[in-house]
Design brief:
Elements (H helix, E strand, L loop, with lengths): L2 E6 L4 H13 L2 E5 L12 H4 L18 E7 L7 H8 L8 E8 L4 H14 L3 E9 H5 L4 H10 L9
Parallel strand pairs: 1-2, 1-3, 3-4, 4-5
Helix pairs in contact: 1-6
The chain binds flavin mononucleotide.
Flavin mononucleotide binds next to helix 1 and strand 4.
Pfam families: FMN_red (PF03358)
Protein name: Flavodoxin-like domain-containing protein
InterPro entries: Flavodoxin/NO_synth, Flavoprotein-like_sf, FMN_Rdtase-like_dom
């Protein structure tokens, strides 16, 4: 089974979890990154709450993959605009499986997972699981066993030997 982990991470938390899952699943990883750096000036808050943001080229063709793991932070109870853009541009998705792993300071996990679930199921993909990781846990380095548990929970045939 071939797995692609697609990760957006502005401050590094989600990237750490994504790396663990990549290692456990023997997956490829692609980084979702914006063309324009986020502007931290509060006057530009509106940029954050837009639906979409331009992203750099990354792997969006699932043709040679069986499972997509979307790794995303929670932004105001929603996926970040870069993640929305990534999902909208996916190719060869029909019948492919997907999972969502979300990081957040405290809340909004279910909202983000359900948002992504709805978008990808509408494209004909099959949801197989989700994981939730608090940024506090990640900061203490207390995430590796939970990330491993999440990866194994995906119950892919490739995991049977683990
Ligand atoms: C613009 C923005 C909005 C955020 N909104 C939420 C939120 O709604 N709920 C929450 O618990 N954390 C929220 N956070 C915190 C992040 O989800 C959390 O720190 C996450 O782990 C960051 O991931 P990253 O380091 O991979 O970018 C927000 C952070 C940013 C920058």
């Amino acid at each position: 089974m071939k797995v692609l982990v697609a990760c957006y991470s502005l401050t590094g938390n989600t990237w750490k979890i994504a790396g663990e899952v990549r290692d456990i699943l023997g997956a490829d990883i692609t980084r979702i990154d914006t063309v324009d750096a986020p502007n931290w000036d509060m006057k530009c808050m509106s940029e954050w709450v837009q639906d979409r943001a331009r992203i750099k080229p990354c792997e969006q063709d699932l043709g040679r993959y069986d499972l997509l793991v979307v790794a995303t932070p929670v932004w105001a109870w929603l996926p970040p605009p870069a993640v929305n853009e990534y999902l909208a541009g996916l190719k060869n998705v029909r019948g492919k499986k997907f999972a969502v792993m979300a990081t957040a300071g405290k809340c909004g996990f279910e909202d983000v997972i359900n948002d992504i679930k709805g978008k990808l199921e509408a494209k004909g993909m099959e949801f197989v699981g989700s994981g939730q990781f608090l940024s506090g846990e990640i900061a203490c380095g207390d995430y590796k066993s939970k990330a491993a548990e999440f990866a194994r929970s995906l119950k892919m045939p490739a995991m049977a030997a683990l």
